Amino acid sequence: VNQLLTAASRTRKMALPAWLIIIGLLSDPISTVIIAVTGGLETGLGQWLLVRMVSGGFFFLQVAGVSLYAASQGTGNPLWSRSLAAVTLLGALLTLNPMGDTSGKLAADMLGFDVGAFEPTSNDVIAGSFLMALAAIPIIALSSNILVTMRGDDVFMENPDSPGMPEINMGALMLIPLGIGALFVQTDALTGGNELSGISPTLLLLVVWLLLVPLALGSALCVYPAVTGRNLLSTNRSRWAFWMMAGGAFSGLIITMMADFSEMALAEAAVEDDSMISNKLRAIGSVLFYGTVIGAILHCLNMISGIFRGAFVDAQSTPSSSSIEQASYNLTAGTTVRKILASGANLDTEIVPISQDEGSGSPTEL
User: Fold this and answer.
1) Can you give the residue range of the structural domain that contains 26?
2) By the 8 A CB rule, do 91 and 138 touch?
3) Tens digits of per-residue pLDDT, 162-184?
4) What residues contact 11, with CB distance under 8 A and at least 6 apart?
């Protein structure tokens, strides 16, 4: 309610990422009311459908909104495409996002109902699979919009050492592969095959720790100076925290998924004895995942210390944030060494600047 009142009392035009956040907030109660009106809250299919709608609306849209804003805020580049942002908004509302739990237990526990039996009909399977496949459109649109916004007219990311930028970059890169993996797992669960049910819990953790957490945490780190008036205490500590969280989550969960595949293979071969290899892999994955805990602690200490001892943000300097929209465009602008190297130049390339004059121009020949 507080965010809706704040948006209602705005004094200027609201940027498109803000609409993603507002509509994401509204999608949770609206989705619940829709399922309740159709009488599906106590059925397994209705609970599964509610989880899909909340995943695509409440979680996906809000993370998309803050990520697009932070990508523009942190790099100073305007939002690359408002059309792709609109595609992300409409696509998330009109499709079923496959990322999330494969059952409706989350919705049942949230509303206090018993978990219903999941018995979809053939038409339900066809419609659900089709809508989940269409969810690839908003996922790809969001990933490309974030990545290109962070790079501007360059192949490299702007401000790569700025706190929050590596997290947002990693989350945007993981959107497509995790979305494809979740689509296969959700389709398998919807059709009743359950051949990939063994990796479903680990894939859910991958979505949380390699997608949702990096995008949300990176956005928070990006807007931290604007909110607190101080910078983080140490950029180096923020960099180390990123590598600890990313490396621990990726390596630990991938090794855990290897153990899941091992157990699935043994179950298919009807082997009743416990696998020593699977147990050892899970132990290794658990140890590696502690890197995520250490990285989270480093981030917390860095942010708390920055509130009290961080350098003050210079109010007189020009902020690096943009207004999401591009106010001007220079036909002739400066460049950087990074952009020159990205165009194919090397250390032996001769750079010849072209002089400019203020003489009267002439029509351009087409």
Assistant:
1) 14-228
2) yes
3) 888 999 999 999 999 999 999 99
4) none
